[in-house]
Specification:
- Helix content is 22%, strand content 25%.
- By secondary structure, it is α/β, with parallel strands linked by helices.
- The strands form 7 sheets. Strands 12-10-9-7-14 form a 5-stranded mixed beta sheet. Strands 15, 16, 18, 19 and 21 form a 5-stranded mixed beta sheet that branches. A 4-stranded mixed beta sheet has the order 2-4-5-6, with helices on one face.
- Helix 1 packs across helix 2 and helix 3 packs across helix 4.
- The longest helix is centred in the C-terminal third of the chain and has 23 residues.
- The chain starts with 5 loop residues before the first strand and ends with a helix.
- It binds zinc ion.
- Zinc ion binds next to loops.
- The site of zinc ion has 5 residues, from loops.
Length: 463
């Protein structure tokens, strides 16, 4: 083994038994809209480069939920951004050592500032204002600390789901959706009044489309506003499995339509709230692994060479949990990997999957096309483990773009970048261009399966 390789595996186990201690929750939010002015250009992320912001329709927010079980504190933060990168999340965590785990997930709005790099003035220019990212890091740290200072006292929790496929469109064959809304309802133990909702829905915040130049959280803006109005409590919105890709049904790309759609999504969340039944969220345990995703995408490699994408790269090793040598001109011909993280946050009866990108819904439910289309590049590839395959009958939620945005995580059997193309098409479907490569999904899903298995083993050991 190469002596320069560093093993970067970390497992966090939060607390043993804390039964008898009251679960508390805190909710908080802060405005993270970037400044806009003569000197301060904002490049909007999510479609083509060169789309400059001209104003603000609604503020971009960071929203935080802190759970406290005795001494243990976990924070879940959702930011209205296209995909905050792993390095920024690691910086946030450094300032929050008193938390057992901090998760930061992006909603993936396509109407906010570039925080990755690909959407600058031209395809060859870096679109990120690094000072802005630092501001998000600082505001998020502050938000988590302040939220932890405003805990509610003992709470009861219920978990509910509701399904509506009419609120989604899958723009890529084969059709596979995750049309399930998942909610956690927190209520005060004394009195039963609602103190907050955590909502997870699975759709690209892109109802405004590619021509809009006003910054907005997109439809989740109206979803959160409507739920706050109905329940008179704070609401945190998280994005789930949006690969494939999951988007609002085609509409006129106006703020009226975006608002209507957001309110309809709030309606589905209300059904989930009505259906919710009590759930125990303690004890809390987190198992996380850093892993290294192979990047075969030539555009990503080119963008990195051009310094449009600036995250660190490492040479691929034969172990996805092992960091290879840093990429340099000497080893530029080798396969590059990027460092990311996958986690299973076990909250009592609820498993919370933290997936660092845009997971295809096929990898949620295992509804793979059988047989795969013969035009695909790897129709006989091994099937990846799926969420439901790994978690069985457990109750779960999924945070996509959790702690990172590595792009689409596609089933390898659907990978289709070479002729002949699947479904008799003349060209490739959209997806591969924004994915690290055909093997990324397997690394992530196997990593998640490992987290779940290790979490269970540890539980048994403590029993
Ligand atoms: Zn996307």
């Amino acid at each position: 083994m190469n002596g320069r390789l560093i093993r970067m595996v970390f497992v966090l186990s939060v607390s043993g038994f804390t039964s008898g201690v009251a679960l508390e929750v805190g909710f908080g939010e802060v405005d993270i809209t970037p400044k806009l002015g003569e000197e301060e250009k904002v490049w909007l992320a999510g479609y083509s480069p060169g789309r400059q912001a001209t104003g603000v329709h609604d503020p971009l927010m960071a929203r935080c939920v802190v759970l406290k079980d005795g001494e243990d504190k976990l924070a879940f933060v959702s930011v209205d951004l296209v995909g905050l990168q792993y390095s920024a999340v690691q910086e946030i965590r450094k300032q929050l050592p008193e938390f057992s785990y901090v998760l930061v997930s992006s909603t993936h709005t396509h109407e906010g500032p570039d925080v990755i790099g690909m959407w600058g003035a031209t395809p060859f220019q870096y679109g990120v204002n690094d000072d802005y990212v630092q501001e998000v890091v600082k505001k998020t740290e502050q938000l988590v600390k302040e939220t932890a200072g405003r805990m509610t006292g003992e709470v009861m929790v219920s978990f509910g789901t509701a399904e509506d496929a009419t609120l989604l469109k899958d723009s890529r064959q084969p059709e596979a959706l995750d049309a399930v809304m998942r909610v956690l309802v927190f209520s005060r133990k004394a009195g039963g009044e609602k103190v907050g909702l955590l909502v997870q829905w699975n759709s690209h915040p892109e109802a405004m489309g590619s021509k809009n130049q006003l910054m907005t959280a997109d439809f989740p803006w109206a979803t959160v506003r409507e739920l706050k109005r109905r329940y008179k409590c704070p609401v945190a919105y998280f994005t789930g499995a949006v690969g494939g890709l999951m988007a609002p049904p085609a509409g006129p790309k106006t703020f009226d339509y975006t608002e209507q759609h957001g309110v309809a999504v709030a309606g589905l969340a209300s059904k989930a709230v009505e259906a919710a039944t009590p759930i125990e969220l303690t004890p809390m345990k987190v198992t996380a692994h850093q892993l290294y995703l192979p990047v075969s995408n030539k555009l990503y490699r080119l963008a990195k060479t051009m310094r449009v994408l600036r995250r660190a790269g490492y040479v691929l090793t034969d172990d996805p949990y092992l960091r290879g040598e840093a990429m340099s001109p000497k080893n530029a011909a080798q396969t590059m990997t990027i460092e990311t993280e996958v986690a299973c946050v076990q909250l009592g009866e609820l498993s919370l999957a933290a997936i660092p990108g845009e997971l295809y819904p096929e990898l949620v439910y295992g509804k793979f096309q059988e047989p795969a289309d013969v035009g695909a590049d790897f129709p006989d590839a091994e099937l990846e483990p799926t969420m439901v395959g790994i978690l069985g009958n457990r109750k779960w939620m999924l945070f996509g773009l959790a702690n990172d945005e590595v792009g689409y995580l596609l089933p390898k059997r659907q990978w289709d970048s070479k002729q002949p193309f699947a479904y008799g098409r003349k060209n490739s479907q959209y997806g591969e261009a924004n994915s690290c490569g055909p093997d990324a999904a397997a690394v992530v899903m196997k990593g998640f399966a490992r987290c779940v298995k290790e979490g269970r083993t540890k539980r048994k050991g403590q029993d």
